[in-house]
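Morning!

As promised:
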Amino acid sequence: MTNTIESFAGEDILSVNQFDRASLNAVFGIAHEMRILVERFGGAELLQGKILANLFYEPSTRTSSSFTAAMQRLGGQVIPINNVQYSSVSKGESLPDTIRTLECYADVIVIRHPDVGAAATAAFYAKKPVINAGDGVGEHPTQALLDLFTVQEELQQIDELKVVMVGDLRYGRTVHSLTKLLLNYNVSFVFVSPEILRLPADVIDAVNASGHSYSQVEDLHSVIGEADVLYMTRVQRERFTDLAEYDRVKDFFVVDSELMSQAKEKMIVMHPLPRVGEISYAIDDDPRAAYFSQMRNGMYIRMALLAALLGKA
Ligand code: NCD
């Protein structure tokens, strides 16, 4: 993929590796305009006559509904398949056949699936653009784009920041995508997790190859004071084969008022959500809490991507 926004037309979005600083700037610029459009007029008729198929084989609240809202605010329509058990998937239909079916009716397909590489498989069979909305423990590129957009909007910079990623770095696909995307910038990392939930080899290899400085630690208190971005994650219960192991690690890290008293005054706390105890509700009113902005930004980023893929950016 080259760097102009026009070159996104007709493309798939499968991995953050497709993006560089120039294309990120272009997407963020459009997302910013989408926000203004929504705030002033509620949306626009840019994608009138276009249809999105929203195909979710795994649970979702934010990703699914923000793609729906993004399409509808741009005048397009949505085929929602959030309950694959009520689709022909439950009759044993293969992924290629489901995709071939949906592209007869839709102009773009969003897919979330438990298997790594499923979105790429879908894209292989589809002639229409396919967007990866999370492929198992693989990637979640549109989440990483909205995460990075939030950092830019909240802190007005990305370079020179120290990013502290916390929790389930092994199974958390948002961490994999965001870490790789941040390699486009001059940042440093602290990866905080119990030993068994460290980053997978391919992600740590990418960080090593790029020469970014990083450390891997198990204690959040000792590093909280350095964080410009604190990126919390949920321990991904559904990925564990041994639930006793999940129980051992699920409550390792909690952001509460006591922890925040040791954090910088100018920093942000992020979380892709859903949270299941990693961030105390007492933090929600702290001006450094950015996780609700992330949710809002998700719609603007997805509006920008849909417009770009459908050639209307
Ligand atoms: C994340 C996901 O599905 O990977 N959620 C999201 O899309 N905002 C994170 C998670 O489920 O923990």
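The radius of gyration is 19 Å.

Hope this helps with the figure draft.
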